[in-house]
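Regression check, guanosine-5'-diphosphate case 445:
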Amino acid sequence: ATFGTLSERLTETFRNLRTKGKLSPADVDGTVREIRRALLDADVALEVVKEFAAKVRERALGDEVNRALNPAQQVVQIVNEELIAILGGEQRRLEFAKTPPTVIMLAGLQGSGKTTFAGKLAKMLAKDGHTPLLVAADLQRPNAVGQLTVVAERAGATIFAPEPGNGVGDPVRVSRDGIEFAKRHQHDIVIVDTAGRLGVDAELMKQAADIRAAVQPDEVLFVIDSMIGQDAVNTAKAFQEGVDFTGVVLSKLDGDARGGAALSVASVTGRPIIFASTGEGLDDLEAFHPDRMASRILDLGDILTLIEQAQQNFDEAEALKVAEKLANEQFTLEDFLEQMQQFKKMGSMKKMLGMLPGMGNMKQQLEDFDEREIDRTEAIIRSMTPAERRTPKLLNGSRRLRIARGSGVTVTDVNALVQRFEQAAKMMKTVARGGVPNIPGMGPV
Ligand code: GDP
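Current build output:
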Protein backbone atom coordinates (compact mmCIF):
# COMPACT_ATOMS: atom_id res chain seq x y z
CA ALA A 1 0.00 0.00 0.00
CA THR A 2 1.01 3.63 -0.37
CA PHE A 3 3.53 4.59 2.34
CA GLY A 4 3.97 0.90 3.27
CA THR A 5 7.74 0.75 2.93
CA LEU A 6 8.20 4.26 4.24
CA SER A 7 6.18 3.39 7.34
CA GLU A 8 8.20 0.28 7.97
CA ARG A 9 11.48 2.08 7.65
CA LEU A 10 10.48 4.91 9.94
CA THR A 11 9.20 2.45 12.52
CA GLU A 12 12.50 0.57 12.29
CA THR A 13 14.41 3.80 12.82
CA PHE A 14 12.47 4.57 15.96
CA ARG A 15 12.82 1.00 17.14
CA ASN A 16 16.56 1.58 17.24
CA LEU A 17 16.07 4.77 19.17
CA ARG A 18 13.63 3.53 21.73
CA THR A 19 15.97 1.86 24.19
CA LYS A 20 18.00 4.99 24.68
CA GLY A 21 17.52 7.19 27.70
CA LYS A 22 19.15 10.52 27.04
CA LEU A 23 19.91 11.10 23.38
CA SER A 24 23.37 12.18 22.29
CA PRO A 25 23.85 14.44 19.26
CA ALA A 26 25.18 11.33 17.50
CA ASP A 27 21.92 9.49 18.22
CA VAL A 28 19.95 12.37 16.78
CA ASP A 29 22.13 12.63 13.69
CA GLY A 30 21.88 8.91 13.08
CA THR A 31 18.12 9.02 13.36
CA VAL A 32 17.78 12.04 11.09
CA ARG A 33 20.04 10.39 8.52
CA GLU A 34 17.84 7.28 8.52
CA ILE A 35 14.67 9.35 8.13
CA ARG A 36 16.28 11.28 5.27
CA ARG A 37 17.16 8.11 3.42
CA ALA A 38 13.72 6.61 3.96
CA LEU A 39 12.04 9.72 2.56
CA LEU A 40 14.33 9.91 -0.47
CA ASP A 41 13.73 6.24 -1.21
CA ALA A 42 9.99 6.95 -1.06
CA ASP A 43 10.48 9.49 -3.88
CA VAL A 44 9.92 12.54 -1.71
CA ALA A 45 11.43 15.58 -3.45
CA LEU A 46 14.97 16.41 -2.37
CA GLU A 47 14.13 20.01 -1.44
CA VAL A 48 11.34 18.79 0.81
CA VAL A 49 13.52 16.14 2.43
CA LYS A 50 16.32 18.61 3.11
CA GLU A 51 14.10 21.10 4.81
CA PHE A 52 12.28 18.43 6.76
CA ALA A 53 15.51 16.82 8.00
CA ALA A 54 16.98 20.18 9.00
CA LYS A 55 13.89 21.09 11.04
CA VAL A 56 13.68 17.73 12.77
CA ARG A 57 17.38 17.81 13.58
CA GLU A 58 17.26 21.32 14.98
CA ARG A 59 14.31 20.56 17.19
CA ALA A 60 15.61 17.16 18.27
CA LEU A 61 18.87 18.70 19.46
CA GLY A 62 17.00 21.44 21.29
CA ASP A 63 15.57 21.86 24.74
CA GLU A 64 12.22 20.21 24.20
CA VAL A 65 13.97 16.85 23.77
CA ASN A 66 16.62 17.44 26.41
CA ARG A 67 14.03 18.18 29.03
CA ALA A 68 11.63 15.45 27.94
CA LEU A 69 10.94 12.55 30.27
CA ASN A 70 11.27 10.26 27.32
CA PRO A 71 13.50 11.80 24.65
CA ALA A 72 12.85 9.08 22.06
CA GLN A 73 9.11 9.67 22.27
CA GLN A 74 9.68 13.37 21.98
CA VAL A 75 11.63 12.87 18.76
CA VAL A 76 8.80 10.79 17.33
CA GLN A 77 6.38 13.58 18.23
CA ILE A 78 8.58 16.09 16.45
CA VAL A 79 8.74 13.95 13.31
CA ASN A 80 4.96 13.62 13.45
CA GLU A 81 4.46 17.36 13.77
CA GLU A 82 6.83 18.14 10.92
CA LEU A 83 5.13 15.51 8.75
CA ILE A 84 1.80 17.20 9.38
CA ALA A 85 3.40 20.51 8.47
CA ILE A 86 4.71 19.32 5.10
CA LEU A 87 1.31 17.80 4.37
CA GLY A 88 -0.20 21.26 4.78
CA GLY A 89 -0.87 21.61 8.49
CA GLU A 90 -4.54 22.27 9.10
CA GLN A 91 -7.25 20.59 7.09
CA ARG A 92 -8.47 22.81 4.25
CA ARG A 93 -12.08 22.42 3.12
CA LEU A 94 -13.58 23.21 -0.22
CA GLU A 95 -14.60 26.85 -0.44
CA PHE A 96 -17.98 27.84 -1.78
CA ALA A 97 -18.90 31.07 -3.53
CA LYS A 98 -21.03 33.58 -1.62
CA THR A 99 -23.37 33.77 -4.60
CA PRO A 100 -23.92 30.45 -6.36
CA PRO A 101 -22.95 28.78 -8.50
CA THR A 102 -19.59 27.82 -7.03
CA VAL A 103 -17.30 27.05 -9.95
CA ILE A 104 -14.72 24.30 -9.49
CA MET A 105 -12.27 23.77 -12.31
CA LEU A 106 -10.19 20.60 -12.59
CA ALA A 107 -6.73 20.41 -14.12
CA GLY A 108 -4.12 17.69 -14.43
CA LEU A 109 -2.40 15.28 -16.76
CA GLN A 110 -4.38 12.79 -18.80
CA GLY A 111 -4.93 9.63 -16.83
CA SER A 112 -4.39 11.39 -13.51
CA GLY A 113 -7.95 10.56 -12.48
CA LYS A 114 -9.63 13.89 -13.22
CA THR A 115 -12.80 12.55 -14.79
CA THR A 116 -13.22 9.93 -12.12
CA PHE A 117 -12.71 12.58 -9.47
CA ALA A 118 -15.33 14.83 -11.13
CA GLY A 119 -17.87 12.06 -10.66
CA LYS A 120 -16.80 11.37 -7.09
CA LEU A 121 -16.97 15.02 -6.12
CA ALA A 122 -20.39 15.43 -7.75
CA LYS A 123 -21.67 12.45 -5.83
CA MET A 124 -20.23 13.64 -2.53
CA LEU A 125 -21.67 17.12 -2.99
CA ALA A 126 -25.06 15.78 -4.05
CA LYS A 127 -25.16 13.75 -0.85
CA ASP A 128 -24.67 17.00 1.05
CA GLY A 129 -27.72 18.48 -0.63
CA HIS A 130 -26.00 20.32 -3.48
CA THR A 131 -27.08 20.17 -7.10
CA PRO A 132 -23.82 19.89 -9.02
CA LEU A 133 -23.51 20.24 -12.77
CA LEU A 134 -20.66 18.50 -14.59
CA VAL A 135 -19.28 20.41 -17.56
CA ALA A 136 -17.39 18.45 -20.20
CA ALA A 137 -14.68 20.84 -21.32
CA ASP A 138 -12.25 18.09 -22.22
CA LEU A 139 -12.66 18.17 -25.96
CA GLN A 140 -9.22 16.78 -26.66
CA ARG A 141 -9.54 13.15 -25.83
CA PRO A 142 -11.82 11.31 -28.26
CA ASN A 143 -14.16 9.77 -25.74
CA ALA A 144 -13.79 12.21 -22.86
CA VAL A 145 -17.33 13.55 -23.18
CA GLY A 146 -18.72 10.03 -23.36
CA GLN A 147 -16.75 9.00 -20.27
CA LEU A 148 -17.93 12.01 -18.27
CA THR A 149 -21.52 11.28 -19.34
CA VAL A 150 -21.24 7.77 -17.92
CA VAL A 151 -19.65 9.05 -14.71
CA ALA A 152 -22.33 11.74 -14.32
CA GLU A 153 -25.04 9.15 -14.71
CA ARG A 154 -23.49 6.90 -12.07
CA ALA A 155 -23.10 9.89 -9.76
CA GLY A 156 -26.69 10.95 -10.33
CA ALA A 157 -25.50 14.35 -11.57
CA THR A 158 -26.49 16.42 -14.60
CA ILE A 159 -23.94 16.84 -17.38
CA PHE A 160 -23.50 19.77 -19.69
CA ALA A 161 -21.72 18.78 -22.90
CA PRO A 162 -21.42 20.37 -26.31
CA GLU A 163 -23.82 19.09 -28.94
CA PRO A 164 -21.82 17.15 -31.49
CA GLY A 165 -20.65 19.56 -34.14
CA ASN A 166 -21.69 22.58 -32.16
CA GLY A 167 -18.90 24.37 -30.34
CA VAL A 168 -16.64 21.35 -30.54
CA GLY A 169 -13.06 22.42 -30.16
CA ASP A 170 -13.77 25.45 -28.02
CA PRO A 171 -13.56 24.43 -24.36
CA VAL A 172 -13.68 28.04 -23.20
CA ARG A 173 -17.07 28.54 -24.82
CA VAL A 174 -18.38 25.23 -23.47
CA SER A 175 -17.28 26.20 -19.96
CA ARG A 176 -18.96 29.60 -20.21
CA ASP A 177 -22.16 28.12 -21.60
CA GLY A 178 -22.10 25.51 -18.86
CA ILE A 179 -22.09 28.16 -16.18
CA GLU A 180 -25.00 30.00 -17.84
CA PHE A 181 -26.86 26.70 -17.97
CA ALA A 182 -26.20 26.15 -14.26
CA LYS A 183 -27.58 29.57 -13.38
CA ARG A 184 -30.75 28.97 -15.38
CA HIS A 185 -31.31 25.50 -13.92
CA GLN A 186 -30.52 26.16 -10.27
CA HIS A 187 -27.29 24.17 -10.07
CA ASP A 188 -25.39 25.61 -7.12
CA ILE A 189 -22.07 24.01 -8.09
CA VAL A 190 -20.37 23.68 -11.46
CA ILE A 191 -17.52 21.22 -11.91
CA VAL A 192 -15.52 21.89 -15.08
CA ASP A 193 -13.49 18.93 -16.34
CA THR A 194 -10.69 20.14 -18.58
CA ALA A 195 -8.41 18.36 -21.03
CA GLY A 196 -5.23 16.65 -19.97
CA ARG A 197 -2.19 15.59 -21.94
CA LEU A 198 0.15 12.75 -21.35
CA GLY A 199 2.88 15.24 -20.64
CA VAL A 200 2.97 18.88 -19.74
CA ASP A 201 2.85 21.08 -22.86
CA ALA A 202 2.38 24.74 -23.66
CA GLU A 203 -0.87 24.34 -25.55
CA LEU A 204 -2.49 22.44 -22.70
CA MET A 205 -1.44 25.10 -20.23
CA LYS A 206 -2.71 27.92 -22.41
CA GLN A 207 -6.07 26.23 -22.82
CA ALA A 208 -6.45 25.70 -19.08
CA ALA A 209 -5.34 29.27 -18.37
CA ASP A 210 -7.89 30.57 -20.90
CA ILE A 211 -10.70 28.61 -19.27
CA ARG A 212 -9.65 29.88 -15.91
CA ALA A 213 -9.66 33.48 -17.11
CA ALA A 214 -13.05 33.04 -18.74
CA VAL A 215 -14.95 31.37 -15.90
CA GLN A 216 -13.16 32.82 -12.85
CA PRO A 217 -13.47 29.63 -10.81
CA ASP A 218 -13.75 29.71 -7.02
CA GLU A 219 -11.48 26.70 -6.83
CA VAL A 220 -8.97 25.27 -9.29
CA LEU A 221 -8.13 21.75 -8.22
CA PHE A 222 -5.01 20.11 -9.52
CA VAL A 223 -5.46 16.34 -9.69
CA ILE A 224 -2.24 14.40 -9.33
CA ASP A 225 -1.66 10.66 -9.57
CA SER A 226 0.08 9.49 -6.39
CA MET A 227 1.95 6.87 -8.42
CA ILE A 228 3.80 9.43 -10.50
CA GLY A 229 6.83 9.42 -8.21
CA GLN A 230 9.75 11.72 -8.89
CA ASP A 231 7.85 13.54 -11.66
CA ALA A 232 5.32 14.87 -9.20
CA VAL A 233 7.25 17.98 -8.33
CA ASN A 234 7.96 19.08 -11.90
CA THR A 235 4.39 18.42 -12.98
CA ALA A 236 2.96 20.30 -10.03
CA LYS A 237 5.28 23.24 -10.60
CA ALA A 238 4.42 23.36 -14.31
CA PHE A 239 0.70 23.47 -13.54
CA GLN A 240 1.24 26.07 -10.89
CA GLU A 241 3.07 28.32 -13.31
CA GLY A 242 0.78 27.61 -16.23
CA VAL A 243 -2.68 27.75 -14.63
CA ASP A 244 -2.09 28.03 -10.93
CA PHE A 245 -4.43 26.17 -8.64
CA THR A 246 -6.02 26.69 -5.26
CA GLY A 247 -5.89 23.11 -4.05
CA VAL A 248 -4.63 19.60 -4.77
CA VAL A 249 -6.40 16.27 -5.19
CA LEU A 250 -4.24 13.19 -4.61
CA SER A 251 -5.62 10.36 -6.69
CA LYS A 252 -4.90 6.62 -6.62
CA LEU A 253 -3.77 6.75 -3.04
CA ASP A 254 -5.08 3.20 -2.79
CA GLY A 255 -2.31 1.97 -5.07
CA ASP A 256 1.27 0.99 -4.39
CA ALA A 257 2.74 4.46 -4.59
CA ARG A 258 5.77 5.03 -2.41
CA GLY A 259 4.18 8.25 -1.25
CA GLY A 260 6.65 10.77 -2.58
CA ALA A 261 4.10 12.79 -4.56
CA ALA A 262 1.75 12.99 -1.63
CA LEU A 263 4.53 14.14 0.66
CA SER A 264 6.03 16.66 -1.73
CA VAL A 265 3.26 18.46 -3.53
CA ALA A 266 1.77 20.59 -0.76
CA SER A 267 5.06 21.89 0.49
CA VAL A 268 6.57 22.41 -2.99
CA THR A 269 3.57 24.39 -4.26
CA GLY A 270 2.33 25.90 -1.01
CA ARG A 271 -1.17 24.72 -1.98
CA PRO A 272 -3.23 22.52 0.34
CA ILE A 273 -4.30 18.98 -0.44
CA ILE A 274 -8.08 19.02 -0.18
CA PHE A 275 -9.12 15.53 -1.27
CA ALA A 276 -7.67 12.05 -1.44
CA SER A 277 -9.04 9.69 -4.07
CA THR A 278 -8.73 6.11 -2.96
CA GLY A 279 -10.25 3.80 -5.54
CA GLU A 280 -12.08 3.40 -8.82
CA GLY A 281 -15.51 3.48 -7.23
CA LEU A 282 -17.41 6.76 -7.01
CA ASP A 283 -17.55 6.56 -3.23
CA ASP A 284 -13.79 6.29 -2.87
CA LEU A 285 -13.19 9.91 -2.01
CA GLU A 286 -12.06 11.38 1.30
CA ALA A 287 -11.50 14.85 2.64
CA PHE A 288 -7.78 15.11 3.23
CA HIS A 289 -6.57 15.46 6.84
CA PRO A 290 -2.84 16.15 7.18
CA ASP A 291 -2.75 14.81 10.74
CA ARG A 292 -4.50 11.56 9.85
CA MET A 293 -2.21 11.04 6.89
CA ALA A 294 0.82 11.60 9.13
CA SER A 295 -0.44 8.99 11.61
CA ARG A 296 -0.99 6.60 8.76
CA ILE A 297 2.63 7.03 7.76
CA LEU A 298 4.04 6.92 11.27
CA ASP A 299 1.74 4.41 12.94
CA LEU A 300 2.16 6.75 15.85
CA GLY A 301 0.17 4.72 18.36
CA ASP A 302 2.26 1.63 17.72
CA ILE A 303 5.56 3.44 17.88
CA LEU A 304 4.74 5.27 21.08
CA THR A 305 3.65 2.02 22.69
CA LEU A 306 6.87 0.33 21.62
CA ILE A 307 8.92 3.10 23.14
CA GLU A 308 6.89 3.07 26.31
CA GLN A 309 7.48 -0.64 26.79
CA ALA A 310 11.18 -0.24 26.19
CA GLN A 311 11.23 2.57 28.68
CA GLN A 312 9.59 0.36 31.29
CA ASN A 313 12.29 -2.26 30.84
CA PHE A 314 14.83 0.48 31.12
CA ASP A 315 13.33 1.65 34.41
CA GLU A 316 13.21 -1.91 35.60
CA ALA A 317 16.94 -2.27 35.04
CA GLU A 318 17.48 0.82 37.15
CA ALA A 319 15.20 -0.48 39.88
CA LEU A 320 17.05 -3.77 39.78
CA LYS A 321 20.35 -2.10 40.62
CA VAL A 322 18.81 -0.49 43.65
CA ALA A 323 17.08 -3.69 44.65
CA GLU A 324 20.34 -5.58 44.35
CA LYS A 325 22.04 -3.22 46.69
CA LEU A 326 19.26 -3.53 49.20
CA ALA A 327 19.17 -7.26 48.83
CA ASN A 328 22.86 -7.67 49.49
CA GLU A 329 22.41 -9.30 52.81
CA GLN A 330 19.25 -11.14 52.00
CA PHE A 331 18.44 -14.71 51.30
CA THR A 332 18.51 -15.32 47.55
CA LEU A 333 17.66 -18.15 45.20
CA GLU A 334 21.38 -18.80 45.00
CA ASP A 335 21.42 -19.42 48.70
CA PHE A 336 18.36 -21.55 48.23
CA LEU A 337 20.15 -23.59 45.59
CA GLU A 338 23.08 -24.08 47.91
CA GLN A 339 20.77 -25.37 50.58
CA MET A 340 19.15 -27.72 48.13
CA GLN A 341 22.51 -29.19 47.32
CA GLN A 342 23.17 -29.70 50.98
CA PHE A 343 19.95 -31.65 51.20
CA LYS A 344 20.91 -33.66 48.17
CA LYS A 345 24.03 -34.80 49.89
CA MET A 346 21.88 -35.69 52.81
CA GLY A 347 19.50 -37.57 50.51
CA SER A 348 22.16 -39.90 49.28
CA MET A 349 22.75 -40.75 52.91
CA LYS A 350 19.08 -41.56 53.29
CA LYS A 351 19.52 -45.28 53.43
CA MET A 352 22.31 -45.09 55.82
CA LEU A 353 20.50 -42.72 58.10
CA GLY A 354 17.38 -44.81 57.87
CA MET A 355 19.22 -47.75 59.31
CA LEU A 356 20.18 -45.81 62.36
CA PRO A 357 17.91 -46.37 65.28
CA GLY A 358 15.94 -43.66 67.02
CA MET A 359 15.54 -41.22 64.15
CA GLY A 360 11.82 -40.71 64.73
CA ASN A 361 10.41 -37.70 62.90
CA MET A 362 13.53 -37.21 60.89
CA LYS A 363 13.22 -40.70 59.46
CA GLN A 364 9.77 -39.99 58.04
CA GLN A 365 10.96 -36.77 56.47
CA LEU A 366 13.77 -38.58 54.74
CA GLU A 367 11.31 -41.14 53.40
CA ASP A 368 9.28 -38.38 51.74
CA PHE A 369 12.35 -36.80 50.33
CA ASP A 370 12.64 -37.06 46.57
CA GLU A 371 16.06 -36.63 45.02
CA ARG A 372 14.67 -35.93 41.59
CA GLU A 373 12.84 -32.96 43.05
CA ILE A 374 16.18 -31.47 43.99
CA ASP A 375 17.51 -32.03 40.46
CA ARG A 376 14.48 -30.27 39.02
CA THR A 377 14.87 -27.36 41.39
CA GLU A 378 18.51 -27.09 40.51
CA ALA A 379 17.75 -27.08 36.79
CA ILE A 380 15.16 -24.36 37.23
CA ILE A 381 17.47 -22.12 39.22
CA ARG A 382 20.31 -22.71 36.78
CA SER A 383 18.01 -21.48 33.97
CA MET A 384 17.66 -18.16 35.72
CA THR A 385 19.92 -15.21 35.11
CA PRO A 386 22.10 -14.11 38.04
CA ALA A 387 19.89 -11.06 38.39
CA GLU A 388 16.78 -13.21 38.64
CA ARG A 389 18.38 -15.41 41.26
CA ARG A 390 19.22 -12.39 43.35
CA THR A 391 15.90 -10.61 42.83
CA PRO A 392 13.11 -13.13 42.29
CA LYS A 393 10.60 -10.26 42.11
CA LEU A 394 11.79 -9.87 38.52
CA LEU A 395 10.19 -13.18 37.63
CA ASN A 396 7.20 -12.07 35.59
CA GLY A 397 5.14 -14.33 33.38
CA SER A 398 7.36 -14.24 30.32
CA ARG A 399 10.52 -14.81 32.33
CA ARG A 400 8.91 -17.78 34.07
CA LEU A 401 7.94 -19.21 30.71
CA ARG A 402 11.50 -18.80 29.42
CA ILE A 403 12.88 -20.50 32.53
CA ALA A 404 10.39 -23.36 32.27
CA ARG A 405 11.42 -23.93 28.66
CA GLY A 406 15.10 -23.69 29.52
CA SER A 407 14.88 -26.25 32.28
CA GLY A 408 12.38 -28.61 30.69
CA VAL A 409 9.67 -28.18 33.30
CA THR A 410 6.27 -26.52 33.30
CA VAL A 411 5.50 -22.99 34.39
CA THR A 412 3.57 -24.53 37.28
CA ASP A 413 6.82 -26.15 38.48
CA VAL A 414 8.57 -22.79 38.28
CA ASN A 415 5.73 -21.16 40.18
CA ALA A 416 5.88 -23.85 42.85
CA LEU A 417 9.60 -23.34 43.28
CA VAL A 418 9.23 -19.58 43.57
CA GLN A 419 6.53 -20.10 46.16
CA ARG A 420 8.67 -22.50 48.18
CA PHE A 421 11.51 -20.06 47.95
CA GLU A 422 9.33 -17.25 49.22
CA GLN A 423 8.33 -19.38 52.19
CA ALA A 424 11.97 -20.15 52.81
CA ALA A 425 12.87 -16.48 52.58
CA LYS A 426 10.24 -15.72 55.19
CA MET A 427 11.79 -18.30 57.46
CA MET A 428 15.17 -16.73 56.92
CA LYS A 429 13.73 -13.49 58.17
CA THR A 430 12.47 -15.29 61.22
CA VAL A 431 15.94 -16.62 61.81
CA ALA A 432 17.34 -13.17 61.43
CA ARG A 433 14.94 -12.00 64.12
CA GLY A 434 16.11 -14.84 66.31
CA GLY A 435 13.24 -17.29 65.78
CA VAL A 436 13.44 -21.00 65.09
CA PRO A 437 13.00 -21.91 61.43
CA ASN A 438 11.66 -24.93 59.70
CA ILE A 439 13.95 -26.40 57.12
CA PRO A 440 13.25 -24.87 53.67
CA GLY A 441 12.94 -26.97 50.57
CA MET A 442 11.63 -29.98 52.42
CA GLY A 443 7.97 -29.34 51.78
CA PRO A 444 5.57 -29.03 54.69
CA VAL A 445 7.29 -29.93 57.89
P1 GDP B 1 -8.36 11.51 -16.53
O1 GDP B 1 -7.73 11.19 -17.83
O2 GDP B 1 -7.51 12.42 -15.71
O3 GDP B 1 -9.77 11.97 -16.62
O4 GDP B 1 -8.34 10.14 -15.69
P2 GDP B 1 -9.51 9.11 -15.44
O5 GDP B 1 -10.49 9.64 -14.47
O6 GDP B 1 -10.03 8.62 -16.73
O7 GDP B 1 -8.71 7.96 -14.69
C1 GDP B 1 -7.69 7.20 -15.31
C2 GDP B 1 -7.67 5.79 -14.77
O8 GDP B 1 -7.39 5.79 -13.40
C3 GDP B 1 -9.03 5.11 -14.89
O9 GDP B 1 -8.81 3.76 -15.22
C4 GDP B 1 -9.62 5.21 -13.49
O10 GDP B 1 -10.49 4.14 -13.21
C5 GDP B 1 -8.39 5.15 -12.65
N1 GDP B 1 -8.54 5.86 -11.38
C6 GDP B 1 -8.97 7.14 -11.17
N2 GDP B 1 -8.92 7.45 -9.85
C7 GDP B 1 -8.49 6.35 -9.19
C8 GDP B 1 -8.22 6.05 -7.81
O11 GDP B 1 -8.37 6.85 -6.88
N3 GDP B 1 -7.76 4.79 -7.54
C9 GDP B 1 -7.55 3.88 -8.52
N4 GDP B 1 -7.10 2.67 -8.15
N5 GDP B 1 -7.78 4.13 -9.82
C10 GDP B 1 -8.24 5.35 -10.17
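Comparison notes: Residues 127 and 331 are 74 Å apart (CA to CA). The chain has 20 helices and eight strands. No diff flagged against the previous build.
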